[in-house]
Amino acid sequence: MLFIELFASIKVKYENNLAPEIIKTIKIGNIDYFNVYELNKSFLSKISDDIIDQRLKIFMYNDELIFLLESSYLNFHSKLYNFNYPIISQDGKYYLPVYFLKKILPKLYPQKIKFNGNDIIAKTPVNNSIHTIVIDPGHGGKDPGAISYSKNNFEKTIALEIAKKLKKKLLNNLDVKIILTRDKDEFVSLQQRTQLANRENANLFISIHCNAHRKKIVNGIEVFYLSTAKTSEARAVESLENSVVYNFEGGQEAVKKYDDLAFILADMAQNEHLEESYQLALNLQSNLVNTLKCYNRGVKQANFYVLRGAFMPAVLIEIGFLSNKEEEKKLINAKYQDKIAEAIFESIKHFKYKYDQM
Ligand SMILES: [Zn+2]
Predict the structure, then answer these.
(1) Is the ipTM of this complex over 0.85?
(2) How many angstroms does the Cα of residue 20 sit away from the middle of ligand 1?
(3) How many angstroms is it from 47 CA to the middle of ligand 1?
C-alpha cells in the first residue's frame, strides 16, 4: 500500500479561545487518512488496542468508540457506524479515513463537535486524569478535634503531621498538584474546605482524622465515604465530626446553613462519585490495616458535612482512636505517621493509575 505524506491537515478549533490543534493527513491509496494517535492531543482521548480481539478503542469526551480492526465499522453506544474506508494498521500505528472526522465524529457528538469547511469546531475537552488532590487535615485552631487519652495530644496536630508527610510522598512520586486545606494550626470551616477543592477543580478529596470513644478500649481504623449513616456506630462518628459546626461555626444557625437546599443539591454531585469513593475507601482500608496491623473496623458510610458538596471522589479516614492509650502512643510517633502516609499514598497511586487509564 502506498503512503504519501502530503503535509495536508485539518484544524481543530475550540469554542473558547484555546489555541487550535492540527491533525495531519496523509494519502493511503487514493484516500485521505490520519494517524489515530493525533486525536490524543486534539481531544485528550485515550487509545488502546487489543490484537487478539481485533479491537481498537478510543475513549474521548467520557465515551468509548470501539473499532473492529480492518473493517470500516465502529460501535458507539451499541450502534454501528460505517466510515466507508477500512481502518489500516501499519508499524504499530492505526489510520482512519478523514471521512470519519468530517462525517462520523459530528454525528457521534452533535453537542460537542461540528465540521465546517476544513475545520473542526470542538468543545474544549476535559483532562480526565487525576491531576489535583486535596488533602484535608481535620479540625485546627480553636477546634482541637479529639483529645487524647493522656489529654496531652490533639487530633488537629496529628492529622496535620500525617497530611504533610502524605503531601511530600505524593509530590515526590506522582505528577500531581497537592493542596492542603490548612498547613498550620488554624481554624477552617467545613464548607471552606470543600469550596477550596471545587474551586481548584480537584479530582480527589482525602480528609484525615483521628477517632475518639467514651469507652477507652475501642480502637482500630475505619474509612468512610459519604452517604446517609447506616449504623448507629457510624452515626456516632458522624455526629462527632459534624459537631464542629455547632461548637465552632455558630451554633444552630450554622447547622441550618449546612442543611439548606444548596447542600442538598451538592449531595447529588457527590452521588455521582459514590462508586469511585467506595472503591478508594475499600483499598485504603485494606492497605492501612495490612500496613499498621490495626483492628479492622471496615469501610463505612456516613453523612459528613466535610464530604458533602465535594464535586469529586471523597473519603474520610479515621486513622485510630486517640482515646485509646495504645493507639495514642502509636499515633504521636513520627515513624508510625510515616507508615500511615505511605499506606495512604499507595492507595492514591493505585486509584490514580486505574482512573487515568479509563
Ligand atoms: Zn475529626
Answers:
(1) yes
(2) 47
(3) 42
